[in-house]
Amino acid sequence: MTTPKVRKTQSPTLVFVDEMEIWLTRKSIKNMHLRVKPPDGRIEVSAPLCLPLATIKQFVREKRDWIVVQQRTIASSPRVDAAAASPDEIKQWKAVVAACVPVLIEAWEPLMGVKAGKVVYRNMTSRWGSCQPATGRICINVRLALYPPECLEYVVVHELCHLIERGHGPHFHALMDHFMPDWKTRRAKLR
Question: Is pLDDT at 146 greater than 70 in this prediction?
Answer without folding.
Answer: yes
